[in-house]
């Protein structure tokens, strides 16, 4: 019992003692931590953001330093989108068979360079022969009707002149002399006798006038002769009017036949053109020679390179079968897609120049010109199509190659920018070197913003006016790492 009481008293005394000593223990711990912190800070290296490097004169001469003054300027945000090179649709065609037939001759192979109008193959097709023969027949019919129309037009013109001469009461001798060789058709035998009869009646009437005055003939006879003049004049005038009407009607009827013949010939020609293309010459050997009526020469519509050949000689082809693929590759298209989410940040105008990098040539930058910018957002990709034309005079670029298209963004004005090659990084921290003197350089950590191929925006770290190192910055970084290791 006494030992238990003693144990309890001992515990109570211990708790009371700790309570008195606890503030002193806390102060002691804080003092120890402060001392350790001061020791640690005194042994750490200087902060990276303020590290300085001093080079010897020999190293200064060995390194070709270039410097750029930090200044404010405008920058365009550049979006890089993936793309692919493809044929220029304006210079890329699939040459197809116009109708079914047999290839009797194939004169080119893939990779061959061809000229405009060069024969690529020869197709033998009965349908083409039938179409050519029909066109020849329609052309002959048209030519026959045209001659008939020309004849009717000539007669109509001459009859009109003859009627004008007759109604002006010219002498029979002068009329016959003028129209001896004129083409008048059956109207000569109708009009000239009627006019001769009218002149005879007029002459008799004139001779009867003095006889009637002298009483040699009766008044009744004089009146009958005057009636003959009026009757012959009316008959002549009626015949002239009817002749004018008839000759014009015949000409108009022949004109209708001519137009119909021309339409039929045009339809036949268009049918043949749908088979062999334009440029039909009715006097060509293919149209004149019966042996060549069914043969068609497949020609190159423009100069280029045969990219693909599908059929060989003696093979049968059907209508619309692709025989060759012809292309010019001096210009290509680079196709890319701009995502809907990026649309508000880009700035594009018709004909604008764009920078393009091709994966096959990573060290080269090509220039392309905006050719087409779509207006509809694709529901599958949520993007807008872009087509740019890129020059390829040396032929080093090929359709199907992958590329990156640099799309300029909207301009951001009055920003601090430094050359892109002046910015280095160390453990995900970007920094630049500032020139403090001819031999002294200082590392300054920065926070970057917009980035282009040549410039980088500095959002924090520089104020402007500093001299940043461009060429030689990597050498300074190496020197800084060596100093840390020492």
UniProtKB/TrEMBL annotation:
<dbReference type="Pfam" id="PF25975">
    <property type="entry name" value="CzcB_C"/>
</dbReference>
<dbReference type="GO" id="GO:0022857">
    <property type="term" value="F:transmembrane transporter activity"/>
</dbReference>
<keyword id="KW-0813">Transport</keyword>
<feature type="domain" description="CusB-like beta-barrel">
    <location>
        <begin position="331"/>
        <end position="408"/>
    </location>
</feature>
<dbReference type="InterPro" id="IPR058647">
    <property type="entry name" value="BSH_CzcB-like"/>
</dbReference>
<dbReference type="GO" id="GO:0015679">
    <property type="term" value="P:plasma membrane copper ion transport"/>
</dbReference>
<feature type="domain" description="CzcB-like C-terminal circularly permuted SH3-like">
    <location>
        <begin position="416"/>
        <end position="477"/>
    </location>
</feature>
<feature type="transmembrane region" description="Helical">
    <location>
        <begin position="5"/>
        <end position="25"/>
    </location>
</feature>
<dbReference type="GO" id="GO:0016020">
    <property type="term" value="C:membrane"/>
</dbReference>
<comment type="similarity">
    <text>Belongs to the membrane fusion protein (MFP) (TC 8.A.1) family.</text>
</comment>
<feature type="domain" description="CzcB-like barrel-sandwich hybrid">
    <location>
        <begin position="93"/>
        <end position="327"/>
    </location>
</feature>
<dbReference type="InterPro" id="IPR051909">
    <property type="entry name" value="MFP_Cation_Efflux"/>
</dbReference>
<keyword id="KW-1133">Transmembrane helix</keyword>
<dbReference type="InterPro" id="IPR058649">
    <property type="entry name" value="CzcB_C"/>
</dbReference>
<dbReference type="GO" id="GO:0060003">
    <property type="term" value="P:copper ion export"/>
</dbReference>
<dbReference type="GO" id="GO:0030313">
    <property type="term" value="C:cell envelope"/>
</dbReference>
<dbReference type="Pfam" id="PF25973">
    <property type="entry name" value="BSH_CzcB"/>
</dbReference>
<dbReference type="InterPro" id="IPR011053">
    <property type="entry name" value="Single_hybrid_motif"/>
</dbReference>
<protein>
    <submittedName>
        <fullName>Cobalt-zinc-cadmium resistance protein CzcB</fullName>
    </submittedName>
</protein>
<dbReference type="InterPro" id="IPR058792">
    <property type="entry name" value="Beta-barrel_RND_2"/>
</dbReference>
<dbReference type="InterPro" id="IPR006143">
    <property type="entry name" value="RND_pump_MFP"/>
</dbReference>
<keyword id="KW-0472">Membrane</keyword>
<keyword id="KW-0812">Transmembrane</keyword>
<dbReference type="Pfam" id="PF25954">
    <property type="entry name" value="Beta-barrel_RND_2"/>
</dbReference>
């Amino acid at each position: 019992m006494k030992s238990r009481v003693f144990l309890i008293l001992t515990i109570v005394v211990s708790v009371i003692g700790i309570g008195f000593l606890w503030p002193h223990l806390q102060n002691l711990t804080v003092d120890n931590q402060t001392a350790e912190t001061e020791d640690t800070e005194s042994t750490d290296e200087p902060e990276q953001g303020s590290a300085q490097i001093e080079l010897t004169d020999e190293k200064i001469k060995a390194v070709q330093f270039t410097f750029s003054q930090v200044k404010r300027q405008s920058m365009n945000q550049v979006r890089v989108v993936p793309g692919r090179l493809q044929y220029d649709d304006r210079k890329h065609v699939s040459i197809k068979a116009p109708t079914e037939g047999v290839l009797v001759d194939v004169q080119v192979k893939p990779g061959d360079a061809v000229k405009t109008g060069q024969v690529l193959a020869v197709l033998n097709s009965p349908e083409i022969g039938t179409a050519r023969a029909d066109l020849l027949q329609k052309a002959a019919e048209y030519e026959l009707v045209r001659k008939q129309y020309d004849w009717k037009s000539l007669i109509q013109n001459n009859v009109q002149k003859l009627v004008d001469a007759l109604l002006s009461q010219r002498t029979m001798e002068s009329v016959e002399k003028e129209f001896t060789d004129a083409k008048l058709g059956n109207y000569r035998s109708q009009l000239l006798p009627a006019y001769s009869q009218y002149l005879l009646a007029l002459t008799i009437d004139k001779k009867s006038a003095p006889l009637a005055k002298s009483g040699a003939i009766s008044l009744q006879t004089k009146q009958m002769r005057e009636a003959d003049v009026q009757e012959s004049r009316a008959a002549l005038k009626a015949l002239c009017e009817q002749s004018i009407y008839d000759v014009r009607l015949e000409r108009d009827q022949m004109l209708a036949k001519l137009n119909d013949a021309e339409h039929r010939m045009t339809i036949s020609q268009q049918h043949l053109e749908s088979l062999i293309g334009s440029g039909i010459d009715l006097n060509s050997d293919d149209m004149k020679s019966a042996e060549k009526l069914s043969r068609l020469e497949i020609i190159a519509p423009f100069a280029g390179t045969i990219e693909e050949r599908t059929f060989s000689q003696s093979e049968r082809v059907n209508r619309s079968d692709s025989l060759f693929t012809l292309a010019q590759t001096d210009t290509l298209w680079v196709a890319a897609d701009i995502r809907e989410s990026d649309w508000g940040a880009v700035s594009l105008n018709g004909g604008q120049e764009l920078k393009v990098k091709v994966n096959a040539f990573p060290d080269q930058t090509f220039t392309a010109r905006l050719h087409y910018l779509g207006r509809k957002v694709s529901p599958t990709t949520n993007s807008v199509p872009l087509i740019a034309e890129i020059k390829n005079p040396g032929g080093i670029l090929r359709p199907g190659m992958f590329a990156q298209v640099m799309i300029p963004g909207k301009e951001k004005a009055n920003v601090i920018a430094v050359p892109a090659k002046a910015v280095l990084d160390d453990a995900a921290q970007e920094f630049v070197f500032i020139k403090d003197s001819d031999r002294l350089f200082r590392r300054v950590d920065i926070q970057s913003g917009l980035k282009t191929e040549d410039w980088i925006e500095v959002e924090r770290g520089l104020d402007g006016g500093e001299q940043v190192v461009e060429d030689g910055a990597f050498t300074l970084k190496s020197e800084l790492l060596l100093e840390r290791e020492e």
